[in-house]
Amino acid sequence: MESREPSSLGPMIQPDACGICLGEYTRPKILPCFHTFCFKCLESYVDKTGRLGRFSCPLCLGDTLIPKGGVARFQTNFYVKADKLRSTYMPNVRCDVCERHDVADSRCLECDQNMCPNCCKTHLKMTASRDHHLIGLFVRDSTPNLRHRVLTRIYCDKHPGDELTFYCRKCDMTICLRCKVTSHENHVSDDLQEVARVTREHLNTKLEGAKLHLPLFHEQLNDANRYEENMVQTKDRLVKTINQRATKLHDKVDKLAATLIHDVDSEYNVETARIDSHRKKITQASKALAGQIHAANQAVMYGADAEIARNKDLLVQQMENITTTAERLQLPKLTLELSPSITLEGKIEESFGSLSTRRPPAVDIKIQEMAVFQVDDTFKVVSSICPVGDGEAWVTSGWKPEIHLFNVYGTRLRTQSVGRNIDSIIQDKSKSLIVTCSDQRQILRSHGNIDFSIIATLGQHPRGIALTEDNELLVCTGQSLAFQDYKDGHKNKVLRYSVDGRMTGEFGDEDQWKFMYPLRIAVNMTGDICIADCQRRCVTIHRRDGTLKAKYTGAETSGLKNSFEPRGLACDSRGFIFVTDNANDAIHLLDHSGKFIRLILTSNDEVYGPYATAIDSKGFLWVGARDATVKVFKVTYI
């Protein structure tokens, strides 16, 4: 698998660029986590992703409270502009305000005007500009300590006319002179300048410690790159060993060799996908750390005394959080080996050897509810969901002729009638929709503006449908329309079709494995075929040729109140399998081999009677349930 992430962190670390648009800041706003974004970029992002008055930082994913008044109420990051001016040599700059045009020694960051000392004093006394930020203009001389701190006056909320000049130790807050002699009269207070000086020294020590962790991110990224190279070598070595042993056996051994090579490829693809995701996580964490250090460093250098004193605990906490982040990003590694038998006697499988894996612990997954909405007012079950674009999906409920296009926030964008009752929907590589009409035993495909035509008429009832990487249709079929009507002797199976409706094969009616009622089907990133057999109450995983590879019965899951009842399933880009359990109001999370990881959603998440599910390329998990209800969750791999 070709890597999509850079092998070096250097080009990705751009502290002075907006983390959303990647361009220069426009009206920069700084979040409590010390990440900065353009005002318009952040406003648009919060409008799209904010929920219940909170949103996740685009860089570090930290949970952030939206202030009263919206994004505009976040603090403007004047430190960005101050940092640019600090490095600018501006000799003999004249005052833009007074008529004498005296030599300016400061510049107002809000007004973008240069000012002489007298105008600066007047500017900070005027009501309209008394809280503006002034930075000293740099003059090239022999003075070692050039003036570079941002000068601003912050006033008392209780006494708006008085500047904050003291720090109350007992109340842990900045106060003005009138507060000091009244409500804080018996409290120990310190001069604000001295408190800020001590705090700056403490924060500078924390910053220096945090900076030491940047090389660790570099090493972890290099480790991930080396691990990927090792996985390539391991894959090549195993394939070579398998092929060498395969030449000593006959036709059946050749088939077994191909199977094991596929398994190696599956493990390799899953692992390299994990490596790529881990690399992204390291890169994102490094960008987040660099941005936090840069912004915090600017705050320490240019922040007003009151700002430093007021935010000292937040700054200290952020620095302490930073130092622990890198230690959690070590990459667990898969051990992948072939375990051959000593002799070539006995069963072929024993003679050939099997692939042994010692997988690292599964990654943790964070899941956040984005929206909940009803498809219509029929209160019927949501039978199918088909993601088709960035945060959009076609949804159908109640086995009716209509399909509805929704975005992840529950806004209905479009409704289309297919003309027949719909059971399942998918989209092919040409962006055409393909639907199964189980009661009329037909498969339809859209043309142009969602005009549908029949591409196949079946002898059985088509249910779930999926598309392979080779553009082959896989269709679950049953002799009865409803799985509750299954009877012994029914030969339910999975049929293979070309996208133009030509049947090419089938599986599931062999001695090796017989389906009872295959209801829904999905193709994993490994090429394996995952099937929810609701009547047999299990999920089966098949190789591309249809042979059984693994099964999951729910017995591995502790705490289930009822028997496992799979209805729908979906596979993500990392090989994880999401299975809806209708009887237990739960979503089971399996790895690519069918091993249970955990219940990722339950009735505690207000998921009731889940039926359909789908996950799109952006990590949005759609869950359709009874009462025509759809819930959308954002899945994040931690």
UniProtKB/TrEMBL annotation:
Gene Ontology MF annotations: ubiquitin protein ligase activity; zinc ion binding
SUPFAM superfamilies: B-box zinc-binding domain, NHL repeat, RING/U-box
Keyword Transport: no
Domain B box-type: 90-137, 151-195
Keywords recorded for this protein, A-Z: Metal-binding, Zinc, Zinc-finger
Organism: Mytilus galloprovincialis
Protein known as: Tripartite motif-containing protein 2/3
Pfam families: zf-B_box, zf-C3HC4
Residue span, RING-type domain: 18-60
